[in-house]
Amino acid sequence: MDEMIYQRAMKKEEVAFLAAMQECEALLYHTALGYLKNEHDAIEAVQEVTYRAYHKIHTVKDPAYIKTWLVRIMLNVCYDMVKQQKRQGHEIYKEPNTVLNEHPIQIEEVLATLPKEHQEIVHLKYFHSLKNAEIARIQQIPEGTVKSRLHKALLKLRIFMGEGEES
Amino acid sequence: MEDKLTQVGEELRHKALPHDTLAQARRKGLQRAKRQRKQSIRVWSGVAIAAIFVLSFTLSIRLSPQFAQSMAKVPGVSLFVDLISTDKGVRDIISHDYYEVLNVAQTKGGLTFTLQGVIADTSGMVLNYKLESSKPVQNLSPQISILQDGSPLAASIGQYNSGDETKFEQGKLIHVVSPESISYENPNFELQVKIDQELETTFTLPFTLEKPIAKTKKVSLNQSLTFEGQELIVEAIAIAPLRAKVTIRVPEDNTMRLLDIEKLQLIDELGEIWKQGGIISAHGDLESGLVHYYLQSNYFREPKKLALEIGDIQALPKGDDYVEIDVEHGKVTHVPQFIEADIWVENDEIHVVMPARDEKESTFSFTSPVDARGETPRSINVVTGINDGKDRNIYMFDFEQMQSPIRLNVQNYPNYLEGEEKIDIDIK
């Protein structure tokens, strides 16, 4: 996509903003679907991300970071929605350790219990197939930090998934 | 574990995208974001609002067979349904047969691009196109430019998806907005379209406008308005069929910095408000001293008199309109008196928390942090959210790059200047 579109979106030009959101359609929807597990909630999450993004898009420093920024908002929205559903009693996932023996636990459920920075990096790496170098460039952190965060995230996933602790 | 994750990602990426529903969700989200208002009570749910739009649209067709006839003349009319249902000016454009049919097509590499038609005036254009493919395709994102006399138009160009996509066909509206006015002395244009797929395809579609271009009605106003001692000058209004442009200048010697004008609306002779709240988009900003606001246009109603209502202006005293933080020592060194917020610093993050005034809408924002040398962070992430009655903004960036103290200038804050002003406009 033309970087101009993002620049204009950042100036809150409505048409450009919608075009930018549409450009990230697959990325956002699939992120939400991976997290919330049903189409209806994922669509609601897209609406909420659009809403939040429009208010704050002018604060993004560089158009190149809009995609990651949107994924970050999406993860927050999903996180909030899950929390709200829990409060309202629609439990969508349980604490992983307590249900290990009851049914085969889904990896995404476990992922949702990790700290946000770990979730984000796993999403970018595995769900959106970005390379470590790309993630490092987007997040402006050293590649080594990407590696160590991934390592920590995978370690936690293995433990929760019952694949044994690493020595 | 990596394989499992890759597999999950693979499965996710192959899930079909409900384009229409997602486009609708984005529009609803945007509508919600734009309904920035103080403490009015929102009783309409998203569904109710959608229902009203649909209702008003079907009603207008029922009431006016002539309108239905005009609509029928527009190729690819379904693309316009959304726009027509929310913008009365565009509805008038169609019913006055101001839309010009072009139907210029080019076929290349199994793709056919058809420029179906255009609405053109000095403020810009709206064009619609159809892209057909012999093979199933999804999400083609054509890059569009428009040339006149061999050079690109000085305008912003955006595309707006209105759904109705199939595997073999997609259509979009192209919105062109020109803050300067477009000259139609030479009515010959060229639409250039680049599509990056496996192979790059470039279409070149020359088109000539034959219908006369409506003359923009310009009224010079230069009216000074004062809100609690703060001045702004409404310089001019220019009404073209697609949009009305209001130019506002803010003098430098105000004691308060104007942050935002939430209400800027046109009311016609019959007392009809042209879009509640008013602003569709803007060019420039209040801080720089000059803004062009774009409102819905009532051009074809040929009003002789209009009223422009201005109010709900956010402002903070100059010099007390920023938060200052010494990140080296983790200390907040300045908070504006007006602002009621908890502000703290942790791990390369600045947290600002205020009591939420609204369940869904955040009511404050800051511009990017600026450090002692006037530098802004190379990259910054801002997370916002409303939870448990708290409205939170978190600014995340690398503190090491920055030299304390760091300032966050207030961009939006619900501190309103008293008063509302009305300007009567005579249109010749």
Give structural notes.
The complex is a heterodimer of chains A (167) and B (428). Chain A has 2 domains: 1-91, RNA polymerase sigma factor, region 2, helix turn helix motif (Rna Polymerase Sigma Factor, Chain: A, Orthogonal Bundle), CATH 1.10.1740.10; 93-167, Winged helix-like DNA-binding domain superfamily/Winged helix DNA-binding domain (Arc Repressor Mutant, subunit A, Orthogonal Bundle). Chain A contains 10 helices and no strands. Chain A has helices spanning 3-10, 14-23, 25-36, 39-56, 66-87, 96-99, 107-111, 116-127, 132-139, 143-160. In chain A, α3 packs parallel to α5 (66-87). Mean pLDDT of chain A is 77; it is low at 90-104. With 428 residues, chain B is of the alpha+beta class. Chain B has 4 domains: 20-36 and 43-98, no CATH class; 99-212, bacillus anthracis domain (Immunoglobulin-like), CATH 2.60.40.1630; 217-317 and 416-426, Sandwich (Immunoglobulin-like); 322-412, no CATH class. Chain B is built from 6 helices and 26 strands. Chain B has helices spanning 2-13, 19-34, 46-63, 65-72, 81-86, 88-95, and strands spanning 100-108, 111-121, 124-133, 143-148, 151-152, 156-161, 169-177, 188-196, 200-208, 217-227, 230-239, 244-249, 256-267, 273-274, 279-285, 290-295, 305-317, 322-326, 331-334, 342-346, 349-355, 365-366, 381-387, 390-396, 406-412, 416-426. In chain B, the strands form 6 sheets. A 5-stranded antiparallel β-sheet of chain B has the order 1-2-3-7-6, with no helix packed on it. In chain B, strands 10-11-12-16-15 form a 5-stranded antiparallel β-sheet, with no helix packed on it. In chain B, strands 5-4-8-9 form a 4-stranded antiparallel β-sheet, with no helix packed on it. Chain B is globular. The N and C termini of chain B lie far apart (73 Å). Mean pLDDT of chain B is 83; it is low at 36-63. Classes of the chains: A mainly alpha (167), B alpha+beta (428). Chains A and B meet through α1, α2, α3, α4 and α5 of A and α1, α2, β6, β15 and β22 of B.
